[in-house]
Design goal:
Blueprint lengths: L3 E5 L5 H14 L10 H9 L5 E8 L2 E13 L4 E11 L8 H15 L5 E3 L6 H9 L15 H9 L5
Parallel strand pairs: 4-5
Antiparallel strand pairs: 1-2, 2-3, 3-4
Length: about 160
């Protein structure tokens, strides 16, 4: 019988995490958007002042998936929340319980840390993920539309010297 385990990631996992990120991006048809290097991963997740954490899922000691998360905050609840940035399980390991184990690990962490919520986003076309999330009791948000500033738009907006 195979044994699934979750462990906290460490800086020596940086190349593995980047590989998983690229595999996830390929699945999401956006591999060309991944600009991070191994050093970027190491610095952003494992530096002393990092606000990001990662866990690795292993089957019989072999890494088969990961999750990257951070804490956000709800003024309405007056509590922090746990935000799942990425969840990935290798294609050959899907259906093994690894994804559910990763989510349960993070849900327990959120409860233990007094978080008011545990949330994430999913691409609207990713029906297998949507079905999986709904099977564990997760509900889609309604009425809220996510926005982001990135790249040159972020630089330009942040550099503006006057409000117009």
């Amino acid at each position: 019988m195979t044994k699934l385990e979750i462990r906290e990631a460490n800086s020596s996992d940086s190349a593995l995490i980047l590989r998983f990120v690229k595999e996830l991006a390929r699945y999401e048809k956006a591999e060309h958007e991944v600009t991070a290097s191994v050093e970027d991963i190491k610095k952003s997740i494992f530096s002393e002042n990092s606000t990001v954490e990662a866990v690795i899922c292993e089957r019989d000691g072999t890494p088969i998936g990961f999750a990257v998360y951070f804490y956000n905050y709800s003024t309405w609840q007056g509590k922090k929340g746990l935000y799942l940035e990425d969840l990935y399980v290798t294609p050959e390991s899907r259906g093994s319980g690894a994804g559910k184990l990763l989510l349960r690990y993070l849900a327990k962490k959120a409860v233990t840390e007094g978080c008011g919520r545990f949330e994430w986003s999913v691409l609207d076309w990713n029906q297998p993920a949507i079905d999986f999330y709904e099977s564990i009791g997760a509900k889609p948000k309604s009425e809220w539309v996510g926005y982001q500033l990135s790249g040159q738009s972020l630089v330009d907006f942040g550099a503006a010297t006057r409000i117009s």
